[in-house]
Amino acid sequence: KGNGVIGNIYSMGLAMQALEATRKFYAPRKWDCAQAFSVVSSHDYQQPMAIAQVLPALVGRSYLDAAGLDCAATKDMSPNQQAPLSPALGTHGVPRAPIQVHYSITNTLQGKHFHYSTSVTVPSGSTLLRVLEVAAEENPQTFSFKTEQKSWGPMVTSIHGLAGSEVDRTYWQFLSAGNALDQGVGTYKPHNGEHIQAVFSTY
Fold first, then answer.
1. Structurally, how many domains does the chain consist of?
2. Where's the Transcobalamin-like C-terminal domain (predicted)?
């Protein structure tokens, strides 16, 4: 893409590794990695899987280099242990300003159709998962949901008792302003006044 994204922000790591490892085979021009590096270095990656895939490319390596690593030459360097921040606190323990997020769930595919909306208040910087949790706490009969932990983070499998199915090729799709979110519920951070839609969809 013109802005340097290869596929999406999560496919970037492996794509950059592949392009870096095969750059000598490119003709008639070399791969210009500046745009791609700019994209990944400015993105706030949260999932371990995404970080693991993008870090090798950022240091000019790929997984192909793993076979030639000299492990004996490395030193045991433990990262500094930091206490996790409270979800309601920002840096330096300062309370984060509350934001309001509008959240709706819609099903027009299976069984009895439904559409419900609510507004929840969460600290700024909260993830979409926290928005779903607050909505479910305030109105469990309507906004209850289930997740499964995947390698890329939590995935919403069911909302309002309606679960996605590989057999039916159905899933819960999350959108903002009609556009599919490019991050999962565990990392996407809605802004104040944003309307998040969960739509039961097919693929």
1. 2
2. 125-197
- Helix/strand/coil (H, E, C) string of 129-174? HHHHHHHHHHCHHHHCEEEEEECCEEEEEEECCEECECCCCEEEEE
**Per-run averaged pLDDT (10 residues), the chain, 203 residues:** 72 80 66 76 76 78 69 52 51 76 97 97 96 97 94 90 95 95 91 98 93
- Is residue 203 part of an annotated ligand binding site? yes
pTM of the model: 0.62
- Check which CATH number belongs to the domain holding 189 and give it: 2.170.130.30
56: containing domain = 11-68
Whether 89 is covered by a domain: the verdict is no
Is 58 labeled as ligand-binding? no
Compute the distance between CA of residue 160 and CA of residue 138 in angstroms, rounded to an integer.
14
